[in-house]
Amino acid sequence: MRLSALYTVKVLTILCLTGCSFATDAIFPIFSGDEPASVNSSSTMERSTPIAMPVPTAPVASRVSMTNSDTGTFVNRKVTQFSAELNQLRGTLSLRNSQLKTVRSTNINNAAAYHGVVGGIKSRLQVGTTPGNPKLMSQWRSSQGQLNKIEGDIASMNQLAAEVDSDSAMSSYLLDSVLAAYGLSGAVDEDHRRLRALEDEVNQTIVTIKRLGSELKEDIARQQQFVANEREGLLRLVEDINTGQLYVSQNNITETPQLSSSSPGDFSQRRPLVIIRFDRKEVTYEPALYQAVSRALERRPDAVFDLVAVNVAGGKDTGKTLSYGSARRNAEKVLGSLSNMGLPSDRIMLSAMTSPSAKTSEVHIYVR
Asked: Are the CB atoms for 85 and 201 separated by under 8 Å?
């Protein structure tokens, strides 16, 4: 009896300490749908209405708090307190969900603006210009500013990740408090039923927070790698501006994945994420490409992409592999853009096919 009394005192101590409110914040994972993007000679993406993907959320109000079962016991009062704290935590999660949407949207816009500036510089260098062209130098400095904005987005993501870690600790503490309440004496069956229901809801919230924390870490790592790659790329680009022409590294060509032969039937049942039509010399496709790929990675961080070079049926580029011709050059150009965006080469599968519906050389990108 003495041991039982001591145990009860310890449990009561834990429960009394749980009166603190959960003031830290967290966020839900965000998923968004992706529509095929098509880039034509006017640099306009041909998109249909975006598919809205549901955002997984937990109910803001705890089901336990919505049940009016006042048994008059001490355990019942603790259950009511825990339910209120869980509701507060879930309300914070909804708020942080909106904040994460804003950060991701801003990041996509900043990256698209960056690629727009860099793409314009490369397009001008590709046809040749005067060494040290002052207009290109001004654009190059602007691209540095855009890259700094992306670093600011990473800082915002890091702050959100820290808040998620804090909320993860608080939700675990709440779960420990609920479990400790089972050991209190003086409870009735209804009290334990409510405790079990509350335990399930707390566990669901913990899973949501852990899932979000993992997604945020992947987003941060991907963006950090992107910025690091682009910093190096800007150093090479300013050298190209000083010479007045674009330099293509031979290393990028030798490391290009091997092209596999494909027929239109292989992709007929799949919907392309991006369609790029090269119907003129200068096609600004990188901003649209980055937005589409970024949104695909938000939905599926481990996604693998099929990059398909499409030849005009009856043209000279109709071989099983793209050894020569415009289709090969365009495919390599898009591959280089994806690499510069930070996408690993082992997640890009190259293929070639002919299409009777193609009027000009095209590049299609599919998500596996």
From this structure: no
C-alpha 184, offset from chain centre: 45
Report pLDDT digits (tens) over 265-298: 466 678 889 999 888 878 888 888 988 898 888 8
The span from the CA of 208 to the CA of 206, in Å, is: 5
pLDDT one-digit tens code per residue, 243-270: 888 765 444 443 444 444 444 446 667 8
Angle at 91 between CA 203 and CA 33, to 5 degrees: 80
Between strands 37-39 and 274-277, the pairing is: parallel
For 36-72, the pLDDT digits (tens) are: 554 544 333 333 322 233 334 544 555 555 555 677 7
Q: Provide CB contacts within 8 A for 127, sequence distance 6+.
A: 281, 282
Residues 6+ apart with CB under 8 A from 50: 32, 33, 34, 35
HSE-CB for 63 with a 13 A CA cutoff: 14
Q: Tokens 């949104």 map to which residue?
A: 295
pTM, full prediction: 0.55
Residues forming CATH 3.30.1330 domain(s) in the chain? 249-368
Amino acid at 279: D
Closest-CA residue to 89 (of 58, 54, 56, 63): 58
Mention every residue, 6+ apart, whose C-beta is less than 8 A from residue 269.
none
Q: Which CATH architecture has domain 249-368?
A: 2-Layer Sandwich (3.30)
Q: Which of 104 and 265 is assigned the larger pLDDT?
A: 104
**What residues pair up with 364 in beta bridges, in sequence order?**
275, 308
